[in-house]
Amino acid sequence: MAIKAKKLLQGFKDIAQGELLLRLKFDKYLAHIVVVAVAVMCILFSRCIVENVQVNRERMRHALTETQWKHQQTSVELVSLGKMSTVEDLLKENNVNIGKPTKPATMIRK
Amino acid sequence: MADTMKKARKGNRTSRLLTVVHLLFLVAGIGIVGQIIYLQLFWKPTELEETFFGTSHKVDTLYPVRGAIYDCKGRLLASSVSMYRVCMDCTVRKAEFESDLENGRIKENEWRQKAAELSAGLAEIYGGSAEDWNRKIIHNRNNNRSYLRIGGLIDYQTLQQVNALPLFREGPFKGGITVETEETRIYPYGSLGRRAIGVVRNNQESQHITGIEEKCNDVLHGKEGHQHKKRTDVRGMYVPGNNWMSKKAQDGLDVRTTIDIDIQDISDKALRNVLSQNEHMIGGCCLVMDVETGAIRAMVNLKKDSNGNLGETYNYAVTTAQNPGSVFKTATLMAALDEGKIDLHDSIPCMDGYYTYKGTRTPQDHHVTKADYPSGYIPVDEGLKISSNHVFRYLGGECFGKSERETGKYLDLLNSYHLFDDFDFDINGLAKCNVKDPRTSGEALTLPMVAMGYDMATTPIHILTFYNSIANGGKEMKPYMIEAYERNGRTEKKFSPTVLNSSVCKKSTVDSLTVALLKITQEEHGTGYWRFRGAKCHVAGKTGTAFQTFKDPATGKTGFGGSGRRVIQGTFAGFFPAEAPKYTVVTVFYTDICGDNLEGSRCASAVREIADQLYCMNPQWGEAIEQNTKLAKAGERKLITGKNNDGKVPDVVGLGLSDAVYSIESCGYKCIYEGHGQVVSQSPGAYSEAKKGATVVIKLR
Question: What was the ipTM of the complex prediction?
Answer without folding.
Answer: 0.72
